Amino acid sequence: MLRLVTRSLRRRPALWPVLLLAALLLPIPEAPAQDAYTFRIARLKYGGGGDWYSDETSLRHLLAFVREHTLLDVAPEEDVVEPGSDKLFTYPYVYLTGHGNVRFTDAEAERLRRYLEGGGFLHIDDNYGLDEHIRREMKKVFPEQEFVELPFSHPIYHIHFDFPNGLPKIHEHDGKPPQGFGLFDRNGRLAVFYTYETDLGDGWEPPSVHDNPPEKRRAALQMGTNILVYAMTRPMVP
Fold first, then answer.
1. What is the pLDDT of residues 162-182, one digit of tens each?
2. Which ranges of the chain would DSSP assign to H, the alpha helix?
3. H or E element: which one contains 182?
4. Which residue range forms the structural domain that includes residue 74?
């Protein structure tokens, strides 16, 4: 074929400009896309019928705040990951929220434990109504542990912004104080942080969604920043 093209060009040199133009117009294959960010975070899509997707834009606004106020090179949009997926292990921080039921299969619970024991971090944010379900399901993940309330001196409350009294109260539910609970890996590191009776995700949403005053929304964003910074910079010992 090449010989035939060569002979044609020798006989009809006027074909050269035509072929050159055709070559220039051919699409150039693109190189594989490379993620421009150091890391990405994910929202956990769980079973059981609960609204794992609630506060749909909350993480986007938190990530914008984190990118503005820290040096963390985090992608501006979250991914979605299921607890049984191998992709789970690619995220240093995974967020779980909702109002209703949560169910992990035995295989998913084992996969979550492997993820957390291997250095992953799970932030559970009760959006009201999650408590009884998440406590039951996390027992599948760490059957030997109960949630432990973290002292206000814990680094997660001070690592970037200072919260001397622990979690801020963002959204009123049952008149209870906000509490931060933890579960720990085999090295004693905080692996699961459960924010209860605060509803940080509501505070990350735009003001028009929940009508939170500016000071509460800022407190929610600052506390969310602390959680992300802590998850990214935890030492190998507590």
1. 999 999 999 777 788 999 999
2. 2-11, 15-25, 58-69, 106-117, 131-141, 200-204, 207-210, 214-233
3. strand 179-184
4. 42-233
- Distance from the first to the final alpha carbon of the chain: 69
Asked if 198 and 167 count as a contact pair (C-beta separation under 8 A), the reply is yes
Residue 76, domain member (yes or no) = yes
Q: Which alpha helices (H) appear in 142-213, and where do they start and end?
A: 200-204, 207-210
Q: pLDDT tens across 102-135, in order?
A: 999 999 999 999 999 999 999 999 998 999 999 9
Q: CATH number, domain at 51?
A: 3.40.50.12140
Query: Which amino acid, one-letter code, is at 43?
Result: R
Q: Does 197 reside within a domain? A: yes
163 contact partners, CB below 8 Å, separation of at least 6:
152, 157, 222, 223, 226
Instruction: Report d(CA 11, CA 2) in Å as an integer.
Output: 14
Q: What domain count does the chain have?
A: 1
Classified as helix, coil or strand, 152 is coil
Instruction: Report the alpha-carbon distance of residue 101 to residue 44 in Å, rounded.
Output: 14
Tokens representing 21 are 């133009």
In angstroms, what CA-CA distances link 42 with 25, 83, 150?
40, 11, 24
